[in-house]
Amino acid sequence: MRRLLAAMPIVAAVALLGAPASAHHSQSMFDTSKEIVIEGKVARFDWVNPHMYLVVETVGPDGKKALIEGEGLGITQALVDGLDRDALKPGTPVVMRANPNRGGWGKQVRIMDVTTQDGEVHPFYAANTRTRVLTPAKSLDGHWAPNRAALGAAFGALARWPVTPEGRATQAELKADGLCFVEPIPFLAVLDELRTIELGDKEVVMRFDNTGDHVERIIPMTATHPADVKPSLHGHAIGRWDGETLVIDTVAFEPNPSGLGTNVPSSAGKHTVERLTLMPDRVRLRYEITVEDPVYLTAPAMLTQQWDHRPDLEFSQDPPGCDANEAARYKSSVPK
User: Within 13 Å, how many C-alpha atoms sit on residue 153's CB side?
Assistant: First the structure.
């Protein structure tokens, strides 16, 4: 299975430093500088990938009944952030806070959060405001996930990367927008979804819960890359320890239409170095990635992010994969 490829304009990324950025398509259809409130009751909750959709029955400006469709994130992102699907059953009275559609009333909106009659706020694009107590980890081995603020910070860093004019021109074409696609690092690594790390003497295994895809990276703990390594989507990685920091060096990536994230392509010369270090409080790790690309970057680019220790999370079981029809649903913007 594949998921929808990342696509977000640079301006939108900068505007969303404190909020989640879209992992799937351009957000230009929504006015993220404005918020509206829609009161009504849940008509339908479509628990689908790569985006979920909540349809609310309300009363329009003309006094007539109207259905308003709100877009949410992917299922695996929602699970990490604590969205309770069962709290939003059909018929449930709700207040939906959303960014409006630039096309006007009645078209699809971007859900920030939804409040039910018990006062509980259910997060969608807005970060969960409930206090989460994190437990210390013994090592890098374990279950980890960035929170929503960490995702926004990563997108802000991606927006500032020194992309070449050719890369910016290709990005503006949004060639990968609306496609079901598995993203390589750096994008794979910064999404607010569950990932696990298994430390071994001979190899490290990282697994990612990637909206219908369980991506696995096997990292041999060896000194050099093989001379005859073949290019692949996720490249060829080798690992080593620098004190208590795990260093992962990856080469031999296939050229990719969004290999640098947000529709910025990558070339066969892409090279990444990741550094993972347990923080002093041991409830988070620091993730750092440096990316070089001789075609699409004018200089090495870097971003850092923190991942929360989340032993409470498990991989989603048989989630619906990226559906091509659902991937293109945002283009309609009118409730089905």
Answer: 13
Query: Tell me, what's the pLDDT at 183?
Result: 84
pLDDT below 50 — which residues of the chain?
1-23
- What is the pLDDT at residue 318? 58
Q: Which residues contact 86 (CB under 8 A, 6 or more apart)?
A: none
* CA–CA distance, 49 with 322 (Å, rounded to integer): 5
Q: Can you say whether the dihedral through the CA atoms of 144, 145, 147, 149 is positive or negative?
A: positive
Q: H-type helices in the chain, by residue range?
A: 10-15, 75-81, 148-159, 165-172, 187-190, 324-327
pLDDT at residue 330, rounded to an integer = 58
Rounded-to-integer distance, Cα 272 and Cα 290, Å: 6
DSSP β-ladder status, 121-123 and 284-292: unpaired
Q: In DSSP terms, which residues pair with 128 in a beta bridge?
A: none
Single-letter residue type at 177: D
Burial 14-44 (b: 16+ CB within 10 A, else e): ebbeebbbbbbbbbbbbbbeeeeebebebbb
Count of residues for the chain?
Answer: 336
Q: Which of 81, 90, 175, 65 is CA-nearest to residue 121?
A: 81
Residue 112: alpha-carbon gap to chain centroid? 15
- DSSP letters for 88-106: G-TT-EEEEEEEPBTT-TT
- Assign residue 327 a region: left if phi > 0, alpha if psi is -120 to 50, beta otherwise? alpha
Q: Indicate the residue type of 279.
A: M
* Neighbour tally for 104: CB within 10 Å: 8
Looking at this protein, which amino acid is placed at residue 87? A
